[in-house]
């Protein structure tokens, strides 16, 4: 994100609400790769491949209602950020992680507060409504066993996989052209994608 948004101080990106972060990553994907997100996951019951194809624009429209804060019983809470998730990296208990998130996001005095399960669940629901893109859920049906499931799409990992795939293809293009023409990597990368494609077609021929 820092490379795509050079005008934004890098340290501040980690403090963006998760939905705002995911929105920026979706916009990056639509701009640099494709307007749709295509992928697959394995069925937990039978292992069959389940494919999905999501329209990026439809997902982006879900975040039109993004709010910066929520309130619960008179206490204000900011929305969770990437920095908050990083702080939970060593937490293995989901309930303890939820309490820790609440304490990190609570903007009022939280000293000595005991959070009951009902409060944790309700605040989580309010945060989800305030930040629709914070967690992207996909409903899938296995073509093999017909089992239905709901999967979470980690847009950060998804976009990174796209970048890695594009980088590997670029290495292959440089190798293929350099092997025939003897040009340097810098010279090959200075070509437009269309010109590289034409050279690759001649290499294949």
What integer value in Å does the Rg equal? 22 Å
- Contiguous low-pLDDT stretches (5 residues minimum) are none
Shape: elongated
Helix/strand order, N-terminal first:
HHEEHEEHHHEEHHH
Structural class by SSE content: alpha+beta
Number of helices: 9
- State the helical fraction: 40-55%
Give, in spatial order, the strands making up the sheet with the most strands.
Answer: 1-2
N→C terminal distance: 39 Å
Total domain count: 2
Number of strands: 6
The profile of the biggest β sheet is: 2 strands, antiparallel
Please, what is the average pLDDT? 91
Strand content: 15-25%
Features:
two-stranded antiparallel sheet, 9 helices, alpha+beta, 205 residues, single chain
In short:
This protein is an alpha+beta fold and about 200 residues long. The chain is built from 9 helices and 6 strands; from the N terminus they run ααββαββαααββααα.
Detailed description of the structure:
This protein is of the alpha+beta class. It folds into two domains: 10-153, no CATH class; 163-204, no CATH class. The chain contains nine helices and six strands. The strands form three sheets. A two-stranded antiparallel sheet has the order 1-2. The protein has a two-stranded antiparallel sheet with strand order 3-4. A two-stranded antiparallel sheet has the order 5-6. A hairpin with a 2-residue loop joins strand 3 and strand 4. The radius of gyration is 22 Å and the shape is elongated.
